[in-house]
Amino acid sequence: MGDFQQFDQDFYQSGYYIDDQGQTVAYSYDAYDARSPGYQDDETDVPGVFHPSAGQQYMGQMYQPAMAPGGPGDSGMDHFEEEPPLLEELGINFDHIWQKTLTVLNPLKPADGTIMNETDLTGPILFCIALGATLLMAGKAHFGYVYGISAIACIGMYVLLSLMSSLPVSYGCVASVLGYCLLPMVALSTFAVFFSLQGFLGSILAVLVICWCSLSASKFFISTLAMEGQQLLVAYPCALLYGVFALITVF
What is the pTM of this model? Predict the structure, then answer.
């Protein structure tokens, strides 16, 4: 064991002697230091080989591609903020719908021709569905009659107004006016769900509603198409149309 310990101590010596050359070579376990002169003396510059210790730095500029207008780097959110709302793009304006409804409910209120000239079919479609639903609640499944009579009436009024007016007439405007003026008929159909209209009182209510609808529709057409002095001529075919709806509602 003594020999082994002596051999172990000799193995981990930090240096040894070579008698043949008569000089001492010292080996140590120090950390590698690239900045020490002992390591830098033997270095030679080889073309095409990168040396970390050379201290050369790249002084150029990195390539930065230019952003195209409207690209990801551009303020794209500004374009979305400038776009109109979806309902406005679809032509749905709840303020105008409310104003038209109030004008129908008040026959004595003057109509705004700029608003009524719009091709707005949201309100007319809702009123047609409401009329068909109230008739169904009264036991009358007349959705086909409501849609069919409305389409034929719009075509007839469009032809008639084109002949009477000096201004161009739009089919969508005619359908919008006739549909909005259907609101009093929806109220009559709702009343028919709870009470019977086949009597004297029912007939009086039906006549009043027909006059109400035809007066409102003729007022809209006169203000929109500049047909002053022709309201009675326009109100007559409108009364025939709403009279058909009243017959369906009563009987």
Answer: 0.63
